[in-house]
Amino acid sequence: MNHRPIAITAAALLVCMATACLPAAADETGDPMRLELSAPIATWDEAIPLGNGLLGGLLWGEGNTLRLSLDRGDLWDERSAENMPWKEFTWANLSRLVREGKADQVTSIFDHNYRDLHPTKIPAGRLQITLAPTQSVERFALDLTTAQGEALLKGGAKVDAFFSAAQPVALVRIPGPQPQLRLAAPESVKQLGYPAAKPASDGPTQWFIQEAAQGLQFCVCVQSQPLPDATLLAITVTSTRDGADPVAIARQRLTAALASGYEAMLQAHKAWWTQFWAQSHLVVPDLAIQRHYNLVEYFYGAASRHGAPPIPLQGVWTADAGTLPPWKGDYHNDLNTQMTYIAYQTAGHFQEGASFLDLMWQLLPTFRKFAKDFYGTSGAAVPGVMSLAGQPLGGWAQYSLSPTQGAWIAHLFHLHWRYTLDDRFLRDQAYPWCREIGECLRDLLHEQDGVLVLPLSSSPEIFDNRLRAFVKPNSNYDIACLRMLFLSLAEMAQASGDAAASQQWAETARKLGAFHVQPDGTLKICQNEDLTESHRHLSNLIGIYPFNLITIDGGPNDRKIIDASLRQWDQLGTRFWCGYSFSWMSCLRARVDDPESALRNLDVFVHAFILRNGFHANGDQLRAGFSNLTYRPFTLEGNFLAAQAVHEMLLQSWSPTPGVLDTQVIRIFSAMPWRWHDASFRDLRAEGGYRVSAKRENNATTSFSITASRNGLVRIRDNFGGRPVQWSREGVKKVGENFELLLNSGDTLSATLPKPTAVPPEPANAAKEFAASSH
User: What tens digit of pLDDT does each residue of 569-624 get?
Assistant: First the structure.
């Protein structure tokens, strides 16, 4: 993201953890499936988040005033910036200007579309509910199990609200006297030159029509129905995307919802969420982390649905503060979208994850045009920063127009296939989409001194927006993105029966050459640039995580690189980190078998970098020295990285030889910190189409089961400390560090191990309870 974050040394990190103030966290109810916040909630970004993928709502307020801030995922102003110089907006021109050192022209041309007010995501509006003077809200709550919001009133009554998982409507049930309702159009759209919204009413129905840009109109509508002791409200947001008459569509939807009634609508809604939560389940012995994990999984269900737009920077919770959303509320593809969709695979939320892949597939013709018009290549390319329609928004050209961002997105197609082993998805979408990204990049690469290099290279977001950020090709970031893509293509081509193409892609990967390292193994930025200061983006480490190109199984040289590089990051400190830096580092530390550091980083994120409703706020909200950055614009990628960090601690299944088909290894309780003595999970997913459940007691695995979705060899890493394993099936063999057995589709392999009699002694490097000594 194009912002200037901010860091501390590893030693100072521990000091801060011991002395930090209490975070602005959720009230401690003891129920990890319930979020409770004391009233008042005076700002939209601390509200109770509700949603159904297409529509989103934020419930907040004080006294007898409730607010429901409304959003719809496809409300976008897609107008390009005024006087956008599209003829000059080309890779060839960018390359020329960089060679000539013309920084001002690079900025004026390639940052132009981003600096203007539009394109941008736009909010829908707000419903303000004024309760009876005798009613007053004391607490707000979110029941994650049923995705219902609550406003708990003085005296014990409560307001209930949910955004239907079955219909594009929201329902609110208000006890007591009939409330006063007022719809407000978003103030921020006035900045875009829109005419004033047109309000109207008809009996129990109120609405407004807002004319937007390029023929788009949207309608926010509420209809009320008196009940014996309450009032029922139905709310929706419709637009010309639904049909020519958004008002008629809205009124029809609301009338039908009220005719069905609250309980009937709630029954269908609950059924959807019951199925959602049934996909998987995990338990860790840390209430703050457990609660946050559950909330983030809820975000997938509330903000990412099959058939709806995928999650942009703020999901379906666009700013309601009279301003346009931070960073345009857009799709940042230099880490944000990729990290937002990094945690659904292990949790088994494939329908929710498909929302992003579906958009990428639908935009393939747009990406082909972008490759041709901007890069002058065949194939397809994804803008590093884009609108919902795939329009390149520009910005800092080093990253917003880096051609390798699409390669990182291709990794999500690859992972979706590896976790599902869906042959149709491989044949019809994953391989074709990734192949076109590969064709564009192969066209851009040229051979220099026996190595394939790009004309321009960068490492997000090193050196920010300076010309110096165009580093000597290829940066380690670009090498990692390119190599992972080409090896994935080799694997997908092999699985598709195209041996010749598989060999060609593997050879292209080989010709990228080695990563650039210092003599001691420390990963550099590029051949002639070292990392010399704390930075928010772990770009030079991407080959370690999420791409397992440098691994703990890769031999002494890989270990040397990992150890030296992480030692350097520790020394540089965290004063220029954002929240997502901590949750990303937590994932990485778990992947390299450093569970105590993984937990320390996750602790810092969960306690210092979220608002009290759980939204990732980028800056250090404790102002405790974890980062010099203390501001609070919220984005969601840090949240999803935190959930993935938990997955990485409990279950890993990556291949030690990427690019070679079916070589994944299942690692159960793969990076468990000492203080997590007991834990369990059910039906987490592993690469190769496996469903895994396991239990841990007294710091040791005591049982697990693995169910196969197709015929194949399952490999299970022996990290059981020499304890004997009792298998449910005969024929399990020990091969190197792994247990192996051929399983057929539907087969389950179970195992039990003896429970240790006691928790082992605490190691010297154990992660302590967050801020344990200060409260």
Answer: 999 999 999 999 999 999 999 999 999 999 999 999 999 999 999 999 999 999 99
Cβ neighbours for 323, distance < 8 A, ≥ 6 positions apart: 188
> To 10 degrees, what angle do helices 579-591 and 595-608 make?
160
What pairs with residue 202 in β-bridges? 205
| Burial class, 724, CB count within 10 angstroms (exposed 0-12 / middle 13-18 / buried 19+) | exposed
* DSSP E strands, 433-540: 446-448, 451-453
Rg, C-alpha atoms of the chain: 26
> Ramachandran region of residue 449, left (φ > 0), alpha (ψ -120 to 50) or beta?
left
Q: What is the three-class DSSP state of 726?
A: strand
Other CB atoms within 10 Å distance of the CB of residue 551: 22
User: What distance in Å separates the CA atoms of residue 74 and residue 81, rounded to the nearest whole number?
Assistant: 19
pLDDT above 80 (res 369): yes
The answer on pLDDT for 196 being more than 90 is: yes
Terminus-to-terminus CA distance in the chain, angstroms?
Answer: 35
Torsion of CA 410, 415, 420, 423, to 10 degrees: 40
| Cα(180)–Cα(165) distance, integer angstroms | 27
Q: What share of the chain is helix, strand, coil (3-state, %, to 5)?
A: 35, 20, 45
**How crowded is residue 394: how many other Cβ atoms within 10 Å of its Cβ?**
25
Cα–Cα–Cα angle for 728, 729, 734, nearest 5°?
Answer: 105
Contact criterion met (CB below 8 Å) for 390 and 370: yes
Cβ-based neighbour number of residue 83 at 10 Å = 7
Asked if the bond preceding 546 is cis, omega within 30° of 0, the reply is yes
Could you tell me if 142 and 231 are in contact, meaning their C-beta atoms sit under 8 angstroms apart? no
Q: Please state, in angstroms and rounded to a whole number, the distance separating the CA atoms of residues 616 and 669.
A: 26
User: Is 207 within 8 Å of 222 (Cβ atoms)?
Assistant: yes
